[in-house]
Amino acid sequence: MTDFSSAVFPVETMAVPGGQETIVRGGRHLFGSLVEGFAGVRRIGVLGWGPQGRAQALNLRDSLAGSGITVTVGLRPRSASAAAARAEGFTEEDGTLGDWLAVAADSDLVLLLVADAAVARHYPEIFAALRPGSTLGLSHGFLLGYLKETGDRFPDGVSVIAVCPKGMGDSVRRLYVQGARVNGAGINASFAVHADHDGRATDRALAWSIALGAPYTFRTTLRDEYLSDIVGERAILLGAVHGIVESLYTRARLAGADPVAAYRRSCENITGPIARAISADGLLGVRDALSGEGREVFDRAYAAGYRPARELIAEIYQEVADGTELRSVVLAGERLRSTPMTPISGSPMWSAAAEVHARRGAEAVPVDPFAAGVFVATMTAQVDLFAELGHPWSEIVNESIIEAVDSLLPYMHARDVAHMVDNCSTTARLGARRWGPRFQAVLEQIVFPAADGAGGGDPALVEAFLANPVHEALAAAAKLRPPVDIAVA
Predict the structure, then answer these.
(1) Annotated binding site: which residue ranges?
(2) H helix or E strand, kind and range, residue 18
(3) Sheet of 19-25: strands edge to edge?
(4) Which of 96, 164, 214, 220 is the most interior residue, by most CB within 10 Å?
């Protein structure tokens, strides 16, 4: 599944546990081949102006400047985003901004980047507008899952591809802009070819990914992408982070810490020093940097936390695979049009965020070994479940580790986890709000008592962690990482 070839872009192999995967390394030196990669495409229609829509429209326009390929934004009638798109230079006057159905009908490559609930409501109109021989592009496998639920299918005579950046839209844009100074800076992406009616779908997908600035692009399937992405949002990328920091904060407060100290041992630790340590040195590097006593604390927290996290993530995976999570998103889309979600930022711990942020730079915050053990256990549990279920290693390390530490956690560090949950996509927000409290309850009721008890968890789990093949896979992927960290204002 991971092997592919390209008539346009140089491919290479990356060694992973048990074999190798074919990838394409990105970079601006490849922009000169984009026209060839997009052969047959004269107009790209980007439908939607959410975080991904904005980022991808801007990146594609910049990458294709002077190429003769036009990037046009399509919005629904009376869209509140029209003014924002105009402010970025997309206008009705020059034909780069218009009604989404008209843009879909006029485009050779149509990127459907609207919210999932809107996709569920309006996909028949989009499908009807597509020209035979055109290509439909997705950045998420949600639509495949929804069509499975409804018994519908993609239109005949249309190629269907996906390019899925492994980071939030703002990261896709910010790192692309940084890539003007550091060649290859960007967000890794997976690609999938679901239907290929002209034999050019693979090169078209690779051109799309390279034009977005992806440092490296790997192959997956639309189904695998959908499963790993939705599960990841509900687990280590967002939902689990929410549950972990809330539970660690409460634990610290019960032990006598004041609100600022408790915040530093929970949210500040996970999103700051722990995330940076994983990004720089991998999962093993977090443990290796701890002292003898700190390492013992890490091991107890890891051993106590791994199995409960694995059980909960397996439950999430099952509910995504059987359509339960998808149906909840669609149902919520109807409900939320009249009753918006309440924010989670009213929790007591977030009152300490401003003071902690103000103190940054005055004193270093060391890695808290207990928080690190709990977090790494949860991350590794997701890795192991994905590996057991046959996901490719590039997808595993990107969806479970790289996207977290190089895209999402830096934003949470700048603005806190509550802000991230309250301002992400509806699909991710629903998942975080549903599963974050589940992780919190499991930690407080099962993991913490086990870590504090006489047994402290199964030490064999730590030995399995030390020998885990994820370390080899992550080290291989890290070699493709550009030497730049995302700049978060």
Answers:
(1) 229, 233
(2) none
(3) 12-16, 19-25, 216-219, 189-195, 159-165, 135-138, 109-112, 43-47, 70-75, 97-99
(4) 214
**8 Å CB contact between 197 and 159:** yes
Checking if the pLDDT of 303 tops 80, the result is yes
With residue 206 as reference, give the H or E element that holds it.
Answer: helix 201-212
Q: Report the distance separating Cα 275 and Cα 55, nearest Å.
A: 24
Q: Which amino acid is at 392?
A: P
**222 with 194: CB under 8 angstroms?**
yes
Closest to 191 in 3D by CA, of 178, 206, 213, 176: 206
Domain ranges of the chain: 12-217, 231-478
Q: How far apart are CA 187 and CA 214, in angstroms?
A: 5
Could you report the per-residue pLDDT of 115-163, keeping only the tens digit for each? 888 898 899 999 999 999 999 999 998 899 989 888 999 999 999 999 9
Encode pLDDT of 30-40 as tens digits. Answer: 999 999 999 99
What are the residues whose beta carbons fall under 8 Å from the beta carbon of 1, sequence distance 6 or more?
219, 220, 221, 392
Q: Which of 407-411, 470-474, 475-479 has the highest mean pLDDT?
A: 470-474
User: Which residue in this structure is represented by tokens 């053990």?
Assistant: 373
Catalytic sites, residue numbers: 140
pLDDT tens-digit map of 167-202: 989 999 999 999 888 877 899 999 999 999 999 999
Structure tokens at 288: 């290796």
The Cα 177–Cα 198 span in angstroms is 33
- CATH architecture observed for domain 12-217: 3-Layer(aba) Sandwich (3.40)
Binding residues for Mg(2+): 229, 233
How confident is the model at residue 338, as a pLDDT?
72
Cβ burial, residue 449 (10 Å; 0-12/13-18/19+): exposed
DSSP-derived 3-state class of residue 347: coil
DSSP structure class, residue 349: G
Task: Report the alpha-carbon distance of residue 28 to residue 20 in Å, rounded.
Answer: 25
Q: CATH code for 231-478?
A: 1.10.1040.10
Q: Tokens 């998420």, residue?
A: 140
Max Cα-Cα span within the chain: 72
Give per-residue pLDDT as tens, 312-336: 999 999 999 999 988 888 787 777 7
pLDDT at 330: 79
In terms of Cβ atoms closer than 10 Å to its own Cβ (0-12, 13-18, 19+), residue 252 is buried
Burial (Cβ within 10 Å: 0-12, 13-18, ≥19) of residue 386: buried
